[in-house]
Amino acid sequence: MLPLSARRSAVRPSRLATAAATIGIAVALGTTGCGAGQISQTANQLPAVNGANVNIDTLQLRDVQILYPEKDAPTVFGNGGPFELAFVVANSDQTAYYRLKEIKPEKGSVEFVEGSDSAARVIAPGQALSSGTPVGSVRDSEKKVTAELTNAGDTVAAGLTTDLTFVFEKREGNGSWVPAGETTVQTPVDAGAELERQDVARNAEPTFYNQHHGAVGPGDSEGGTPETGHEEGGGH
């Protein structure tokens, strides 16, 4: 029989190996669980767009918004329109055909200026239908229509949302169209036209000069005569 010291040295490496293996499995399981959690959290994230996003069965409405009028906005808002609608409807079903039947607003009516023929609003499997082009976006791949909201009264205002109800139909095997449900979207008004960048320094907070010297700034004297300095493109 081996001495006690020899038996202890023979057992110790085995215990150490078992402990190391146990720790390794725990770390591996912990890493796997964390990774799986991250995937599940990001899998259903919505795109970073300004409009509203809603799902109805296999249809996804994305970036639904009312476009800010490009011209004479105060008059357009005062008259309750006409406002152009922007949205994308994607059909993720690989076999079914859908059709956007109509859009019902809180007040007034929505007319399809382009796409008045219902056949133009059919969304084929794996395809999308869009209306309008929000500021900063480029959409060339979708089938396009133009939808316009009129007589909306005071239900449309910048900074608020208005309810638009999208009504869909689905094509049966015999070619007939049947109701496919509807969804109401709280629709915002977009931020308006992009403004041209102006690289002009402005005082964000009150300073000694604009508090006590009227319009006189750091580069001017109190008498209105500019102080000597370096001008852009000038000499030293």
UniProtKB/TrEMBL annotation:
It holds the Pfam family PCuAC. InterPro entries: LpqE-like. It comes from the Bacteria. Residues 209-236 are annotated as: Disordered. This is Lipoprotein. It comes from Gordonia alkanivorans CGMCC 6845.
